[in-house]
Amino acid sequence: MCRWLAYSGTPVLLDTILYKPAHSLIDQSLHSRLGVETTNGDGFGVGWYARETGTDTPAVLRDVGPAWNNRNLREIAQHVMSPLVFAHIRASTGTAVQQTNCHPFRHGRWMWMHNGSIVGFHQLRRELCVAVEPSLFLEMEGTTDSEVMFFLALTLGLEEDPPGAVARMVGLVERTGRAHGVADPVQMTVAVTDGRAVWAFRYASAGIARSLFYSTRVESLRALHPDVSFLQEVSDDTRLVVSEPLSDLPGAWNEVPEHTYGVVRVGHDSLHTFAPLPA
């Protein structure tokens, strides 16, 4: 499958969150502990918002090679600073290793990334694609189930109601899958953002969903670990959501419960029950 992280908070260099942690996303690209595969080398992507440019549209860098030896990623990570970052390392579930299949996916000011799969996607792909709103369909460039999920969510109202749209997307995929004899079609952790808030979802039609964790509140971590300089440099609103913990720092990470979504925004974050809805 894949590994990903979403960062929201005090602007930091990409290097701080991508390379410096003991079990950073770059380390996970070779040595994942909780993923289906140990190695995630089928491409990577990083998306970030640069508020000083006066645009809400995120920048996205994607490549087909492994993240661990990409010189361009290493170069920009030491110079680009952002308050909201998505990063993803890919292990393909069967679709081609190509740039247009790397996450995060972008539409306007929105970004989306996914770990998991639509079971039996090759059977369901045509019907699911037909359900995408025609003008949005023309924007789809790749061949992954993840991108189809994103554009289905956009079709079903993501820009107005992210939790409701994702729930309707999952409901549509499940209904379509079961009509084709796929009993349990959805396995996912998803992160989506409009540059202001981050929504993160953990859900599986059956069984245990892919791993997902969120960071403990910064003020609590400062009390536990007053010697950790990073905690002294970031605001109380700073949060990370990750496929697997970036460090073994005691008390730093909390597992997102099954069938749950979380919302992270300045001054507020919360967890809610997630369930599919009819589309």
Automatic annotation (TrEMBL):
<keyword id="KW-0315">Glutamine amidotransferase</keyword>
<protein>
    <submittedName>
        <fullName>Class II glutamine amidotransferase</fullName>
    </submittedName>
</protein>
<dbReference type="InterPro" id="IPR026869">
    <property type="entry name" value="EgtC-like"/>
</dbReference>
<dbReference type="InterPro" id="IPR017932">
    <property type="entry name" value="GATase_2_dom"/>
</dbReference>
<feature type="domain" description="Glutamine amidotransferase type-2">
    <location>
        <begin position="2"/>
        <end position="245"/>
    </location>
</feature>
<dbReference type="InterPro" id="IPR029055">
    <property type="entry name" value="Ntn_hydrolases_N"/>
</dbReference>
<dbReference type="InterPro" id="IPR052373">
    <property type="entry name" value="Gamma-glu_amide_hydrolase"/>
</dbReference>
<dbReference type="Pfam" id="PF13230">
    <property type="entry name" value="GATase_4"/>
</dbReference>
